[in-house]
Amino acid sequence: MGIRATSSKPLFCYSKLLCISVIYLFTSLFLVVYTSFISPTNCLFRYSPNDPIQKPLFIYNSSYGEHKHALPTFRSSCDSPVYFSDYWNALKEMNEFSENSTSLGSRNLRYIQGNADSFGGNFSIRKRFSYFDHHDGIQVPCGFFKRFPISKFDRISMENCKGIVVISAIFNDHDKIRQPKGLGKDTPYSVCFYMFFDDVTLKGLQYHNLISTISSEENLVGVWRIVKVEKEHLYENSAMNGVIPKYLVHRLFPNSKYSIWIDAKIQLVVDPFLLIHSLVVMEDVDMAISRHPFYVHTIEEAMATARWKKWWDVDGLMKQMETYCDNGLQPWSPEKPYPSDVPDSAIILRKHSVATNLFSCLLFNELEGFNPRDQLAFAYVRDLMDPKLKLNMFDVEVFEQVAAEYRHSLKNDGVSNLKVMPKKTKRASSRFLVNGTSSKCDGYLLKMWGESQD
Questions:
Q1: What Å distances lie between residue 388 and 297, 353, 381, 391, CA to CA?
Q2: Can you tell me the distance from the alpha carbon of 409 to that of 265, in angstroms, rounded to the nearest whole number?
Q3: pLDDT tens, residue by residue, 203-219
Q4: Is 127 helix (H, G, I), strand (E, B) or coil?
Q5: Which residue has the higher pLDDT, 12 or 283?
Q6: Rounded Cα gap, residues 377 and 298, in angstroms
Q7: Beta strands of 171-327 (E only): which ranges?
């Protein structure tokens, strides 16, 4: 008599714990295989001796802290639009270049010396424009017609920075210090991090016990070295004071080879060596900067500046655009070797070359001559200067991959410092001036909108 066949479960399934362990094992193996051979990025299980630092660099007091909420982004941390080299290879290449490089762009430019009522010399429009065509031996106005009011100790320290320098500035206690993330193990010791403060911001740090109230030659907050600037000896406008370290970094750090400017509302999340190596060195350019997410034409940005009250002197904005149109500024077109005329200058990566340093000097002069809104003078200087600037204007997606953007700190004065961006850019009028009279920018606007000039 035969035995009736019966189906039975595998032996391991009779043990719930064993069953779960087997499932976990196969899931883990699948993820390891996927991240090693299939996934284009190493965004999972990145714990190895070669990976960037994961732990916070500095713990703030609870009364201070960073701003709680970053602006939203739709980027994926596992989907990078830019290729980053291995950290140790990039570190080696950058250090070798810094050690072997003997020619500095700042040494190939000669600067006008002298004393003036303003830090930048307050040159006339025609005089500023005369320096755009640069030849060897010509002296260029580049600020420092008044002493930059920092201590001798800070000045010597800045001159000793010989590789990459990362700089930022906070005036009027308008932002909070944000520590960079994703730094490689050697970066805090190989890269100079400098944050320029005024007395108001410094008192805020002292109030929160982040730095000592006792006078000392050096103050550190995390990786940032704090440099106090006596702003009353510079400009009344705090934004203009921030322009000095932003664009004259090659003069403040005359021996550095590369620099990264970051607005105080920005937090770096990628190592500076990787940023410079991928966006400047590998692209063989002088400068890398993000294009603006909304505008491509300079006058679009000028109109938005007036519309959203980013600058109070609207007549001054009109005069500035009239001046640039009169001196040869053209609207953006595919014939230009750049993808846009309007940058997002919250992050600027520079090789301190002759072209980059000349561009920085010329742009700074325009900002003193008109206003500190650097996006308005950017294309005018870039397009009309000679020698030409090799520029990498990278996509907004790259910006979102390498940085986290926060809102400015709000003051308790009942006035919001936030500016709401338009959902859709409004079309410009065919007449730039509100009174309808003829404008030197009429031709610019007609080309901008593809209209006939007949």
A1: 20, 11, 10, 9
A2: 9
A3: 888 888 888 766 556 78
A4: helix
A5: 283
A6: 8
A7: 192-197, 219-221, 224-228, 258-262, 266-268, 287-291
